[in-house]
């Protein structure tokens, strides 16, 4: 950065930082970061944050900050409130980051009387979100409204503060979902060594996600009691929606699970089927997205990641299943049921990668060659 600015500029600005990323690393707002570019991007974001606000508002920085006793007590009470209101673990994780950021801003401004929260306070919080993606911005603003509602409902403030958070129109699905080619899914699964214990585990897990579209959290929580071997079914309560789901148990998946349980799974008191094989042996963390498993077998199968064909993790296999079901003319209601969506409109997200189905959605007068 120093060499880049030396002959061009006398003072640093946010625009210069963004231009540096684009000129040197070809990184722009819509760019999917390649391996090795994260540190460069993060460094500029930290510099931009300090330049704008005199503070560093990054997730890593906020995670390391310690709240004082007053704010920590309020923070813990809110997270317990979320848990008792059946928020999913993932939702609570998002709210954790969002609300801790807000409480740090309250602390910096010495606000201990919650009735003194004003629009200016909220504005400072919103300014700290400037470098977030659209999806993250939506989550953070929703979390703040929920937290402010909590303060009013628990009589910690006399004011309905949620109305201080402005409404910003953001596309529900701004990005195109990551999907796989069928042959690449097969290549990746074929690359698994099912002769060793970890391979047996990973083979069964990847089949469950690729063929049945099970969410990662549900995969990690799956127990032997969720499987009806006689009826060849899998039944469980989904962690995201808290709704029951019934899925078929294909023979290859059933035998893969049996092989892992009999010949691969270490001794462990946990009831979950899939566990970590490194000490301490036990269930996967609720915050582990299992993306390392995908990357491991992509490398073994020599599957290339590029800008036009990118995979981010286990969830991309779920995207691929939905897209392939659409291409095979499976009804949207059926796909919604298979994936465990509460709302059939969620399936429209996957239309973005199915050009033929998108064309069918247009009227005759709205046909465009693509």
Tally the structural domains. 3
- Largest beta-sheet details: 3 strands, antiparallel
- Structural class category: mainly alpha
Number of helical regions:
16
In CATH, the architecture of the largest domain is Orthogonal Bundle
Let me know the number of strands: 5
Overview of the structural elements:
50% of the residues lie in helices and 4% in strands. It has a three-stranded antiparallel beta sheet with strand order 1-2-3, with no helix packed on it. A two-stranded antiparallel sheet has the order 4-5. It has three domains: 1-54, no CATH class; 61-175, DNA polymerase, domain 1; 182-314, Intergrase catalytic core (hpI Integrase, Chain A, Orthogonal Bundle), CATH 1.10.443. It has 370 residues and is mainly alpha-helical. Strand 4 (275-276) and strand 5 (282-283) form a beta hairpin. The model is unreliable at 353-370 (pLDDT under 50). The longest helix is centred in the first third of the chain and has 20 residues, at 89-108. The radius of gyration is 24 Å and the shape is globular. Helix 6 crosses helix 7 (119-127), helix 6 (89-108) crosses helix 8 and helix 10 (197-212) crosses helix 14. The chain is built from 16 helices and five strands.
How would you briefly describe this protein structure?
With 370 residues, the protein is mainly alpha-helical.
List the main descriptive attributes of the protein structure presented here:
50% helix, disordered C terminus, 3 domains, 16 helices, globular, 370 residues, mainly alpha, hpI Integrase, Chain A, DNA polymerase, domain 1, three-stranded antiparallel β-sheet
